[in-house]
């Protein structure tokens, strides 16, 4: 099995395994967090987002946030490529992602996939870096 096939398989299994946990965690009252399901999107291999595809299916979900225009991906990547600064990496990710936690936790809008696409391409991070380093608890990452 090639590494990209393995990453895709890991992504699919991760999403199916944590789907039930995401439903339970989304009903918890008053907690601002980014779900494990949303973080699992970081494990996907970077692919072109729907905004980049010519003639993409107009019925496909569209994230209302233009993550392609956000700043901070390069700084996040610089902090996360150095294993000695995992705390700084996760703090930088929280600063970038937590304002959008509700959108990122909605699996139907594509926001998590889109944000992680730009983290991987503009921040030059390997798929899964955020998921592997910043998952704080079974429900995800507390903001």
TrEMBL record:
<protein>
    <recommendedName>
        <fullName>GPI-anchored protein LLG1-like domain-containing protein</fullName>
    </recommendedName>
</protein>
<dbReference type="InterPro" id="IPR039307">
    <property type="entry name" value="LORELEI-like"/>
</dbReference>
<keyword id="KW-0732">Signal</keyword>
<dbReference type="InterPro" id="IPR058888">
    <property type="entry name" value="LLG1-like"/>
</dbReference>
<feature type="domain" description="GPI-anchored protein LLG1-like">
    <location>
        <begin position="66"/>
        <end position="142"/>
    </location>
</feature>
<dbReference type="Pfam" id="PF26578">
    <property type="entry name" value="LLG1"/>
</dbReference>
<feature type="signal peptide">
    <location>
        <begin position="1"/>
        <end position="21"/>
    </location>
</feature>
